[in-house]
Automatic annotation (TrEMBL):
Transmembrane segments: none annotated. Residues 118-190 form the Transglycosylase SLT domain. This is Transglycosylase SLT domain-containing protein. SUPFAM superfamilies: Lysozyme-like. Residues 72-84 have a biased composition (Pro residues). Residues 50-59 have a biased composition (Polar residues). It comes from Gordonia mangrovi. Residues 42-84 are annotated as: Disordered. It holds the Pfam family SLT. Residues 1-23 form the signal peptide. InterPro entries: Lysozyme-like_dom_sf, Transglycosylase_SLT_dom_1. It comes from the Bacteria. Keywords: Signal. Residues 60-71 have a biased composition (Low complexity).
Length: 193
């Protein structure tokens, strides 16, 4: 809207000068300004609040304050990774470590169910082996805390654990993975499985 007013005012000023020249009210004796082309004369007309020319106006204008560019934020060091938990080398520690691995692999099971089944299968002895049942008769005895046979261990072993049926944590995780696929969870196992 301001541009439209300036354009209208510029047009009116140009017409007024043209009319004065045509009417003969301006003479050759007047300052050189009258001899300038109309477009240039119109350019020097200030349509703002004062009658100063653009050159005079710029000399009285207060310069904009310079603002220093904002300093880039200092990058923060990446947080140190959480220390890996240390589990005691006993039945409680083995179960707790197995549960953490199971959570990371979406394998269901609770501490109580795992503990209950371990106590029934091996009484907590990671070196337990069954040499008398049908699996033993077939040459593949049940081994470890949850009495897992080698083919079942190989099929349900969880990556990231030792590939060793005698390893207490590996044995628990593989057995719970098997129970999850077969029974929905180790929580649903209440007898030999």
């Amino acid at each position: 809207m301001a541009r439209a007013r300036k354009s209208h005012a510029l047009g009116a000023a140009t017409l007024a000068i043209a009319a004065a020249v045509t009417a003969g009210s301006m003479t050759v004796d007047e300052p050189a300004r009258a001899e300038q082309p109309i477009a240039q004369t119109a350019h020097t007309i200030d349509l703002g609040d004062s009658a100063q020319t653009p050159a005079a106006k710029s000399s009285t204008t207060t310069p904009e304050p310079t603002v220093a560019p904002a300093a880039a934020p200092t990058p923060q060091p990446a947080p140190a990774p959480a220390p890996k938990p240390v589990y005691p080398n006993n039945l409680d520690g083995w179960i707790r470590e197995a549960l953490d691995i199971m959570r990371a692999n979406n394998i269901p099971g609770s501490y109580d169910a795992i503990h209950r089944n371990i106590m029934r299968e091996s009484t907590g002895n990671p070196q337990a082996i069954n040499l008398w049942d049908s699996n033993a008769a077939a040459g593949i005895p049940s081994k470890g805390l949850l009495q897992v046979i080698d083919p079942t261990f190989a099929a349900y072993h969880v990556k990231g654990t030792a590939f060793d049926v005698w390893n207490p944590v590996s044995n628990i995780v593989a057995a719970c993975n098997y129970a999850a696929h077969r029974y929905g969870s180790m929580d649903n196992v209440n007898s030999a499985y």
